[in-house]
Every structure is written in C-alpha cells, then in structure tokens.
Write a structure and sequence with these properties.
This protein is α/β, with parallel strands linked by helices. It has 2 domains: about 5-195 and about 360-370, Rossmann fold, CATH 3.40.50.2020; about 195-355 and about 380-390, Rossmann fold, CATH 3.40.50.2020. The protein contains 12 helices and 16 strands. The longest helix has 26 residues, at about 380-405.
Length: about 400
C-alpha cells in the first residue's frame, strides 16, 4: 500500500476496534481477509497509532471466535466467545456452502441457504446490542433470484434486507447482485453491490498469455438480456464490441421451477475468429452457458471463456468436462466468494479468482469511515493492467522475432 494511502488511513480515526466474524461457511476466505488486514496495519507507522483512539488497531488476528451449537432436533443457537462491546463488527456468510452438515433426529442434513441465514441472525442477536456497529458481507445475496413478483408469490430477498435492518445492520455488502434494485427495500441503509470486473480481467490476463484486446480479435457476450448492463461495462472498459443471446422459452410448460428454453437467438456482430468472453453473474446447472458456448463455436469463434462471479455447478462438473474436451469451452473463471469443491479447483479448465484482498480493502476503508467509491470504480486499474499486458506481449513478440533471425 502506498505511503499516501497509509497516511490517509492513519489520520482517520476508526469507527471502533475492528472485529471480523466470518461464519463457518466462509471460514477460509475470512482467514485470508484477516491476514491482509493484519499485514497492512502492522506496516502503518504514525504517532497516532498508539493513542487511545487507535486502541486495538494493530493485531495479529481480528477474528472474533464464535460457535453455532445444534440440538438433536436441528434447532440451534449462536454464541460469541469474546467481548464485542464497542467493536465495529463485520459478519461474513456464504449462504451457498452446502458442504456443512448437522444432525437432525439422527439424520445428516446439509445446510441450506435458509440455515446459513438463520445462523447469521443468531450471531447478530448474540451481540445483544453491545457492538458499536454491525456490518454484513454476504457475497451471494440470500434469495437474490426471488427479487420480483410475477404472480401471488413471496418477495424473499426484500424481506431478508428489511429483517437485517430491524436487527441493527448498518452496512450491507454483496457482490454482483442478481438484481441490485432490491436495495429499494431498505432505502435509508447503506447497500453496496460490488463488481468483480478488475479481478476477472486480471485473472484472465494472468492465465492466457496471447490475447489481442481489440475489436478485431475479441468480443464480450451476454448470455441473456438480464446481464446486458454487466456485459456493456466490460465491453466499454476493454474497448471491444458486445453481443447478446436472448432465450426463447416455452411458456406453456414449467420444468424445475422455470419455463424451458427452446432456442438461443443471437444479436451482435460477427464472432468468427475472435476470442469471446461470456459474462454472467452465476453458473447454476451450466446448461444455458454451455448452449451459449456451442452457439458461439458454431459461429466460428476462436476461443470461449466464461467469467461468472458465482460458480454453483448444481448439476456437477461432468457437463463442463465434456464441453472442455469437445473444445466448446476453453476456460471458466469464477470467484472464491462462495464454496468451491476440491474437485473444481483441480480442473484444468477452471481459473480461480481470489477476492480476499478486495474484501479486506473494503473493510479497511469502511472501518475508517472512508469513502469506497474509488475502490468500486476499477477503470484506472483495468487500463493499467491492460497496458502492462500489451507491453509484455510486444516485448515477447520482438524477442521471438530476434530469436528466429
């Protein structure tokens, strides 16, 4: 971190002593975030750091130990194992971590999003109003796909946000929300929907060394109309063209809770010979993503990479193995914001996008009551990364020409 940034942080008194509270569902990511915060605060030197206003500022560990206990009936309770009086608490939860189990009447039960959300509320309740401030970081927003009403049905995501407001949560952070307009449910609260654009571009450039980032060689694709804004942003910052598919559905049937897709129709310029990025917020079963990749390959796209914030892979990885083996997909990038199976991390076609440093930076700024607007706008960092990538490619090309001579 630069000296100017260090000075900026140390001159701004923290809201309260920092306390991280990652639930078991997101323990690994919480440990990485903690390591970054401990390292940065250890490096900051100022006469102010040892005053009472900065009490507890420099520590090796900011994680508050917690425990969720389960009774044989499946009921639970949350316990915080040290004092949080006057602390600025950052609760982190992954509502998609299905790997955690508990016993209910002798049966093994995998935790659902409902269970994780209930555990979050338990720990908020366990603070008993003694914390200075409560912040929630929920990368995959609970019930975010149930964000609008098309018939007589529940509005679960809005209810969740209102419930957290009533529990005293002041700041709510999520990533690539399915529909960020649900923030209208809590108009007076702080709701930040964080994009992962820079981290995806950085990971792609680190893994693929021969990309030509211009309109003649590269293109961004939205797999449906819902992701248009996301794809437009990528296209603008990369300076390339954009296209989209729209899903033609059979509205006379409902299969697995949705109308089945009849066909994928394409709108956009020619993709022949171009490297293509498919941009979306999540991979669920992967059926729609792979169908989109097939359509692009049939239109003679050179390589197809998918950048999706959340890799759920609800139907397993075999379909993606087949798509990679058949040359339909050349790579899939998802973040570590939600649970990743060991099998996924071992796949040749998979690129992991680590978000821990970004989360740590957001927490550090919010704890100092500083603006995060500059962090949320990554255009300058993206431009710098692309410039460095192009320069490296030019140097490699020049060296190759010399070697051939």
């Amino acid at each position: 971190m630069s000296d100017s940034r260090t000075s900026e942080f140390i001159e701004q008194i923290p809201v309260g002593p920092l306390a991280l509270m990652p639930l078991k569902s997101i323990e690994g990511l919480g440990q990485k975030v903690n390591a970054y915060l401990a390292e940065w605060r250890k490096e900051r030197e100022s006469e102010h750091k040892h005053t009472i206003a900065f009490n507890g500022y420099q520590k090796d560990n900011y994680i508050v130990p917690t425990k969720i206990s389960r009774f044989g009936s499946g009921e639970g309770k949350g316990t915080i194992l040290e004092s949080v009086r006057g602390k600025d608490i950052y609760l982190m939860v992954d509502v998609m971590n299905y790997s955690i189990t508990y016993s209910i009447f002798g049966h093994v039960n995998h935790m659902s999003p409902d269970d994780h959300y209930a555990d979050l509320k338990r720990l908020i309740a366990a603070t008993t109003g003694k914390a200075k401030r409560i912040n929630v970081i929920m990368p995959f927003m609970y019930e975010s796909r149930q964000h609008k009403r098309s018939s007589r049905e529940s509005l679960d995501c809005a209810l969740m946000l209102q419930e957290l407001h009533d529990l005293g949560v002041e700041n709510f952070l999520t990533f690539d929300a399915h529909d960020p307009r649900v923030m209208n449910a809590i108009p007076r609260d702080s709701f930040d929907n964080v994009s992962c654009t820079y981290q995806f571009i950085k990971a792609l450039l680190n893994h693929v060394g021969d990309l030509d980032i211009d309109k003649n060689h590269m293109m961004v694709i939205s797999p449906d109309e819902g992701g248009m804004n996301r794809a437009i942003y990528y296209a603008n910052v990369l300076g390339i063209d954009m296209g989209m598919f729209y899903k033609r559905r059979d509205y006379t049937q409902v299969v697995n809770g949705r109308n089945p897709i009849v066909a994928h129709e394409f709108l956009g310029t020619d993709v022949e010979g171009k490297d293509v990025l498919i941009i979306d917020d999540m991979i669920s079963s992967g059926e729609s993503l792979i169908d989109t990749a097939k359509e692009l390959k049939e239109r003679r796209a050179r390589r197809v990479y998918a950048c999706c914030t959340f890799g759920l892979f609800t139907n397993g990885l075999e379909r993606f193995d087949g798509a990679y083996a058949a040359g339909v997909l050349d790579g899939v990038l998802t973040t570590n914001l939600i649970y990743q199976t060991p099998e996924l991390l071992e796949r040749e076609w998979y690129f992991n996008v680590d978000m821990s440093k970004y989360i740590a930076l957001l927490i550090d700024n919010i704890n100092h009551d500083m603006s995060i607007s500059g962090i949320l706008d990554p255009v300058a960092k993206i431009n710098a990364k692309i410039s460095a990538y192009r320069k490296k490619r030019e140097e490699e090309t020049a060296q190759l020409s010399l070697d051939l001579k």
